[in-house]
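Q: What does the assembly look like in three dimensions?
Context provided by user:
Components: two
Sequences:
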Amino acid sequence: MSPTLTAKAPRRPPSKQVPDKDTAPMNATAAKLLVAAGDLMIERNSTEVSLSEIAQKSGVNAALVKYHFGNKDGLLLALLARDAASEMANLAFVLDQPISPTEKMRRHIAGIINAYYRVPYLSRLIHLLLHQGSEETSKEVHRFFINPLFDFVRGLLEQGVEAGEFRKVDPALFYISLNGACDNLFYGRQMNARFLGSKGITDEVRRQYIGHMTTLFLGGLLTDKAGMPSDMERPSTAKT
Amino acid sequence: MSPTLTAKAPRRPPSKQVPDKDTAPMNATAAKLLVAAGDLMIERNSTEVSLSEIAQKSGVNAALVKYHFGNKDGLLLALLARDAASEMANLAFVLDQPISPTEKMRRHIAGIINAYYRVPYLSRLIHLLLHQGSEETSKEVHRFFINPLFDFVRGLLEQGVEAGEFRKVDPALFYISLNGACDNLFYGRQMNARFLGSKGITDEVRRQYIGHMTTLFLGGLLTDKAGMPSDMERPSTAKT
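A: Here is the predicted structure of the complete assembly.
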């Protein structure tokens, strides 16, 4: 395996310049602004919302946005941190659970898809921060979101190989393919409407995609498919 | 399987309003403008190029952009059509080849990744047209690009099930997961630099990703892994 692909993602301590917003208790006014931002994105089915619109909807003076978050990227980062908080907190817990690596991976795949489903703007918010934000913003997304997720996947893949359940795969390539596949259902929402029918991503589609992704990725990862629970061996069961 | 997920993607004849740019022979001036647009995107490592910059680089009068393509979306659509032309022309040919469905799927996966690799802006161009273009632009991308690709995948999945090589999967969900996974290596280029090393997507990474994706997706798709060629059974062979 190439050393370039197994390089450890940099794990650095929280930067001194950036307050650790994802763990510090949140001020009530700041929380109000985040609620308004999330609600606006859901109402509009778009992440294009301005600071003045957010301030107006929350009833908070626009000047306080700057006070609490510095700028718009700061507010969007805090929104991502809020929405991903429970998943991120859960990662270390899942890794230590007394269940098989296969079962952990299954829960992880379902967890990603459920998070995107529950927060309809999550996928677009991540794209916005990574592709249109500053270098500093992108680094911050990596610090509290992408790096911990990648570390979790790498740790889980190691557990699976040690247990003899997973074949050896490159963690970076696996991470990229898993997240790209999960994201594409949601990011390409309008685009996928043609394939998914006019109702879009219903709860049934969510369940079907979890079944599809679990069978596909575990099928490609497991050393022995016979080890899969029966509802994963027969996709027709998982999908109806 | 849910009927909403197996609905046939609309296959309509080329619209009368939109000239069939993807098959008509191209005017030399129009071709020059496309070369300039593609070169600029590669030089800048960005799809953000203005019409006047494209005109200037090509040495063509800016007024002719409007004459040949109508507007910027028209030019970008023609660029996508040009860059995807050989892959699109190849689809029908591959489906009729006297090789197994497994081998066809293997070539298709490699074909997608190679296309993204060969044209460094391709992934971002598709995102730009689908997510920031007009409704009409998105429809046009579907007409000459997405619908034929989806039809190909659906046809290939049917062939594989008939041959007893593939288990039955929903073609829409499979299409979404395959394309999302392939795209994510390239679209998240800057983002993935942390995982892939500072050299980014080298030819070695391209080969490794083809090996990874082929093993993963065929592993999840095939009814019997023993039917895979030996270089797919052992990912370590494909990846070094």
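Follow-up: Confidence is low (pLDDT under 50) at residues 1-23, 226-240 of chain A.
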